[in-house]
Amino acid sequence: MENKKFSDLKLNSSVLKAIDDMGFEEPSKIQAEAIPVVIDGYDMIGQAQTGTGKTVAFGAPIISKIKDIDEKEGVQAIILTPTRELAIQITDELTRLSKYARVRVLPIYGGQSIERQMRAIKRGVDVIVATPGRIMDHIKRKTVKLDKVKFLVLDEADEMLDMGFIDDIEGIIKNISGDRQTMLFSATMPAPIKKLASNYMKKEVKHIAIIKNSLTVERIQQFYFEVKNKDKFEALCRIIDVEEPETTIIFCRTKRGVDELVESMQFRGYNVEGMHGDMSQNQRINTLKKFKENNIDFLVATDVAARGIDVHNVSHVINYDIPQDMESYVHRIGRTGRANAEGIAYSLVTPREYVMIKQIEKFTKSKIRRKEIPTIDDIFETKYNTLTDKITKNIEKDDFKKYIPFVQKLDDEFNLVDVSAALVKMIFDKEMGFDYSDDDKLKSDESVRLFFSAGRKDKLTVKKLLEFIDNASGVEGNEIGDIDILDKFTFVDVPERLRDVIIRTCDGKKLNGRKVNIEVAKSKKKSK
C-alpha cells in the first residue's frame, strides 16, 4: 500500500478535487485499503482505531457512488454513530468531501429541534448522519423513509453497543432494504459485533484490520495552545520568540499552507524554508541539507515531505495544523526526542479541534498539557535575558576596545543610559518577529472549575459525564476542559461563558441514577 495516491483508488473526479482542496496528499492505511473495497460494492468490516481517517475511508467512496447515480430518490446513505459530537464531526467531513458532488448531508441527533430536522428531510437529503435514538424517533413518527438506502455505515460499532443501542440499530436495519451495501467500523471485535455482522452483512464481506503501530512518545514533552484560527500566526510567532528554539520543524496540513506560512515567516525575518510534495527532488534535498547543517532555523513541511527528514538534533516540533489522523501526529512529534534526547512538541488548537487533543491522548496513552500563549512581557523578558547574556559574554572577551572612542563621543552629547536604551530598542525591533497586538485579544475564555457531587463510587466515567452535560445543557464535549473524577465527587473545568448554563440546566438532574448537585468549586485548578 506504500505510496498509493487517492487518484489510484477509483474515486469520482469531483471527490478527488474536494480531497485535494482538503489538503490530503495521500491516503491513510485504512483509506488505501477500504476505499477500493467499497467502490467495488463489497460489504466491509473495518477494524481500526479512532483517528485513523475512517470518515474519508467510507465517505469518499459513498459520495463517489451517489454522485454517479443518475436519478436519486430519497435517502441514499445513512451513517449511524454513537454521539452527537461524532455526528457533527462526520457531517463536517462529508460536507467538505461533497463540495463538488452536490450531495446533500444532514446530521440528526438528540438535543436539536426535531421539527427543524423534519423540515430538512422534507426538502430532500442524500446522506443522513445520525445517532440511533434520534433516527428511531423519526422512523416511529414516519418522518423519514429509509427503504431507498443503498449504503449503511455503522461507525464506532463497539461504542454504540456499549451504550445500549443494539435494539435501535436492529430496528433501523429492518427499515432498510436488504439489497444495501453495509460497512461496519469498530476498534474492537467483541462477540456482539461479530453476531451483528453475521446477521446483517453479506457472506462475502471483506475484513480489513489496521494494526496499531508501536508508539514511542515517552521522551517528548507535549503541550497545546488554544487559539482562534485568525490568531494562529501571531501565536506561533509569540511561541517562537519566547522559546527561541534551535532547530524546529513546523507542520502544516496542506502544500498551500506550507507556502503561505513560509512567506509570512520570511517577511518577518525568520530564517525558514519549506518542503512539500510539489517541490522537485533537488529542491527538497537542498532544503534538507541546509536544515541538517543548521543553515536554516525552521523547516515548514507537510507529512509526506517530512518522511525524508532524518535529523537527530530537532529540539521542537510544532503542529501549526492538527493532522488528519493520530498516527500522523505520532510520526510528526517523533521527529524530535531522538538519540536519547528529550524533545518538545507544541500544537496550535482551535476550540473546535480540542476534542482531537483528547483523542490523541487516549491513542498515545500520554498527557498533552495546556499552555498559555506567551504575553508581550514574556517575549520582552526572553529578549532581555538573551541580550544580557550576549553582552556579558562580549565584555568577558574584552575585544571591544576600538569602539570605546565612538561611545565616548556619544557620552559627550547624550546620557549613556539613554544611548543604551536606544540601542536595545534597535535590537528588539530587529528581532521581534511580529507587531504584536494586545495580549487580551489572544486570550481564550477564562475557565471555571465546577464541583459535581458524583464520582467513581457512582460508576461515573468521563464519557458518561460528557453525555450527561451534552444531553442536559447542549454543551458539547469539545467545550469542556479537564475532568478529575475522584471517589465521591468530580471537578470539571468549563469556559466562564458556559458556567451558568451548565449549572442551571444540569444541577438537580439524575446522573447515573442519583441526583447530582453542581456548584462553582472553591479553588480553581491552575493550568500547568
From TrEMBL:
Enzyme's top EC category: hydrolase
InterPro entries listed in its UniProt record: DbpA/CsdA_RNA-bd_dom, DEAD/DEAH_box_helicase_dom, DEAD/DEAH_RhlB, DEAD_box_RNA_helicase, DeaD_dimer, DEAD_helicase_CshA, Helicase_ATP-bd, Helicase_C-like
Example of a GO cellular component annotation carried by this entry: cytosol
UniProt cross-references to Gene3D superfamilies, sorted A to Z: 3.30.70.330, P-loop containing nucleotide triphosphate hydrolases
EC numbers: 3.6.4.13
Ranges in coiled-coil conformation: none
Catalytic reaction annotation: ATP + H2O = ADP + phosphate + H(+)
One Pfam family from the record: DeaD_dimer
Domain (DEAD-box RNA helicase Q): residue spans on this chain: 4-32
SUPFAM superfamilies xref list: P-loop containing nucleoside triphosphate hydrolases
One GO MF term: RNA helicase activity
Subcellular localization, as worded in the UniProt entry: Cytoplasm
Span of the annotated motif Q motif: 4-32
Signal peptide feature range: none
Keyword tags: ATP-binding, Cytoplasm, Helicase, Hydrolase, Nucleotide-binding, RNA-binding, Stress response
Domain Helicase C-terminal positions: 219-381
Top-level taxonomic group: Bacteria
The keyword Cytoplasm is assigned to this record: yes
Domain Helicase ATP-binding positions: 35-207
Biological process per Gene Ontology, one example term: RNA catabolic process
Subunit organization: Oligomerizes, may be a member of the RNA degradosome.
Function: DEAD-box RNA helicase possibly involved in RNA degradation. Unwinds dsRNA in both 5'- and 3'-directions, has RNA-dependent ATPase activity.
Recorded family membership: Belongs to the DEAD box helicase family. CshA subfamily.
PANTHER family: ATP-DEPENDENT RNA HELICASE RHLE, ATP-DEPENDENT RNA HELICASE RHLE-RELATED
Protein's UniProt name: DEAD-box ATP-dependent RNA helicase CshA
Source organism per UniProt: Clostridium acetobutylicum (strain ATCC 824 / DSM 792 / JCM 1419 / IAM 19013 / LMG 5710 / NBRC 13948 / NRRL B-527 / VKM B-1787 / 2291 / W)
